[in-house]
Amino acid sequence: MRLRHIEVFHAVYSSGSVTRAAKILNVSQPSVSKVLAHAEQQLGYPLFDRVRGKLVPTPEADQLFSHVTTVNESVDRLRHVADNLRAAEHGKIRIAATPAFGIDLLPAAIASWREQHSDISFTVETLHHDELCNALLESRLDVGLVFNPPAVPGLAAETLGQGSFCVLTPPGLEFGSKKALSIGDLKGIPFISLDKRGPLGRLLSIHMESSGIKLNTVAWAETYQVAKALVSHGAGVTITDEVTARSSGHENIGVWPLKPALQFRIAALRFDKAPLSLVCRGFVNHVQECIHEFLHPPISRQV
């Protein structure tokens, strides 16, 4: 089957009629019928039976469809990549980060970079991990900033730094002379749990489950910044990443190192078949320096 045959067959099978397929493809109905007939002639067997004016897929069509869907998705992705490559502008850095980086670290890095490179412009997005990976694979981004990335086919990861998890506590909650808190220290205290879908959430979830201690969960938050806000307003305690803990906002909370220490990587992701431009390479190196400076001060009981 030729690519046009695949496109028309997918549209007809998915929509259930030549008329609807023509609208999807933005072509005439006779054109769809002609391509479909040519595909059947080339294959040597029918793809649809005409039953009382309706198209009914043959068993052969049913078997072909799953394979055709994969090819069609690949073609769609290729179109996205081609469009995004055309749209990429010289002197522009397209970057996305998971939400925690968008509070302070990434904005500060962009601002300080532009002090020396005022001719460079940016497009900036905050995306959850899976969305960010898809955007990179479609060449909609040049680089992504993420926590603890798993291996993703088609993407290359470069470690820029390492952070630790922290315990955040509301105003007035004291733990005597302790300088760090364990999961056991939080038993019985209202606890704000974090989303387990991202790499960081999964890492923390495994660590907490291995402790064998059941906490008194009173709320679940999708982002660490929301969990931090809940702590600030006295809703309970939480365990969060060090970047969120050090970012501005809600300075009335207590910040304690988690013991035993649980660490994570901070990495830059890129499409593995497209090396970073010199401009992007320079900016990623700058972000690495900013990460080091941002996380360098030791964690104390207060941010």
Account of the 3D structure:
This protein has about 300 residues and is α/β, with parallel strands linked by helices. The protein folds into three domains: about 5-85, Arc Repressor Mutant, subunit A; about 90-160 and about 265-295, 3-Layer(aba) Sandwich (D-Maltodextrin-Binding Protein, domain 2); about 165-265, D-Maltodextrin-Binding Protein, domain 2. Helices cover about 45% and strands about 25% of the residues. The protein contains ten helices and eleven strands. The protein has helices spanning about 5-15, 20-25, 30-45, 60-85, 105-115, 130-135, 200-210, 225-230, 240-245, 280-295, and strands at about 50, 55, 90-95, 120-125, 145, 155-170, 190-195, 215-220, 235-240, 255, 265-270. The strands form two sheets. Strands 3, 4, 5, 6, 7, 8, 9, 10 and 11 form a nine-stranded mixed beta sheet that branches. Strands 1-2 form a two-stranded antiparallel sheet. Helix 7 links the parallel strand 7 (about 190-195) and strand 8 (about 215-220). The protein starts with a helix and ends in an 8-residue tail after the last helix. The mean pLDDT is about 90.
Approximate shape? elongated
Strand content: 15-25%
CATH arch. level architecture of the largest domain: 3-Layer(aba) Sandwich
Question: Residue-averaged pLDDT, rounded?
Answer: 88
The helix/strand class is: alpha/beta
Main beta sheet: 9 strands, mixed
Q: In CATH, what is the class of the largest domain?
A: Alpha Beta
The helix/strand order is HHHEEHEHEHEEEHEHEHEEH
What separation lies between the terminal Cα atoms?
A: 63 Å
Helix content: 40-55%
CATH topology of the largest domain: D-Maltodextrin-Binding Protein, domain 2
For CATH, the homologous superfamily of the largest domain is named as: Periplasmic binding protein-like II
Low-confidence region ranges: none
Number of E strands = 11
User: Total helix count?
Assistant: 10
Overall structural domain count: 3
How large, in whole angstroms, is the Cα Rg?
26 Å
